[in-house]
Amino acid sequence: MIGQRTLLLEPREVPLGGVRAMSVLRTLPNRDIPTVGAWCFLDRFGPDEVRMRVDPHPHIGLQTVTWPLVGRIRHRDSEGNDVTLERGQLNLMTAGDGISHSEYSVGDDPIPLDALQLWVVLPDSARAGAAGFEQHTSLPSVTVPAETGANAAGTVVLGEFAGVRSPATVYTPIVGAEFALAPASRVVLPLDPAWEHAVVLIDGDLTVDDRMPAPDEMLYLGDSRSGVTLSTTTGARIFLLGGEPFEEDLVMWWNFAARTHDEIERAREDWESAEAAARFGRVVDHGEERIPAPELPHVTLKPRRRSI
């Protein structure tokens, strides 16, 4: 057991540079907490007015979760999918042993864009499996009764919350859900005490266990909680992450989630080789444009460990 925690994790700005010409705020992985359940990565890109061009790039061993807040995003992948994503919809891509995709903002001009991009590490039972993609345009809603003020309205994006389950495919016990808290309200979100959880403030003001995270900060809650009390003065929008603690080794580098340095090195070599399409395919409606892999560090990559 991890026990109850109230640990504030601040995001760091990561310049993506190049043709993407944008920066993101990254909260996971954190030096002390590499995962929350099977959630292993969280970026927020925006709010900004940008022309996003993320050219074809590879993934292994994880699922990408794209949850737009503002704007429209075009997703194309090596499984032949070409779809547009907008607010209230979920893109879920399962990499398995290898997939590649691109993400562009819609249109040729800069547009208002704001979204959460999250990764879920796949367990051994699924990480070497087939790649896949799902878009869910209708997701289940949930209402959390308020102790004070109006009830909180939620959307279960991934996994299960309070008996309400998302239709998206998952491979570990997990939850990802967005909630809107009304001004001057106080609610208790029910939690599974066997799972660890974290709350990310998207916008507004929030108080949790006498802590007041700023927007984009994550409040890590640990496990052993049957609920968490959230209160707000002006209103808030939050994203809840949680799940059964992920106990398998996890080596992460660039866009790859694996178990060993050798697996990462092999995936990089495969992407950079002339036979890259044999493992990662070709992204629909793209030519030779692609994002090259960076150089590996001159040290052996080790599994990430929790330090709390």
TrEMBL record:
Keyword terms, alphabetized = Iron, Metal-binding
- Keyword Metal-binding listed: yes
Q: Which residues form the Pirin C-terminal domain?
A: 178-274
Q: Which CDD domains match?
A: cupin_pirin_C
> Where along the chain is Fe cation bound?
57, 59, 101, 103
Cofactors: Fe cation
A Pfam family matched by this chain, by name?
Pirin_C
Domain Pirin N-terminal: residue ranges? 28-120
Q: Which domain of life is it from?
A: Bacteria
How cofactor binds (record note)? Answer: Binds 1 Fe cation per subunit.
Signal peptide stretch: none
Q: Does the keyword Cell inner membrane apply?
A: no
Record's Gene3D superfamilies? Jelly Rolls
What one GO molecular function would you report for this record? metal ion binding
Any stretches that span the bilayer, and where are they?
A: none
Which family does the UniProt entry place this protein in? Belongs to the pirin family.
Q: What name has this protein been given in UniProt?
A: Redox-sensitive bicupin YhaK (Pirin superfamily)
Organism encoding this protein: Microbacterium ginsengiterrae
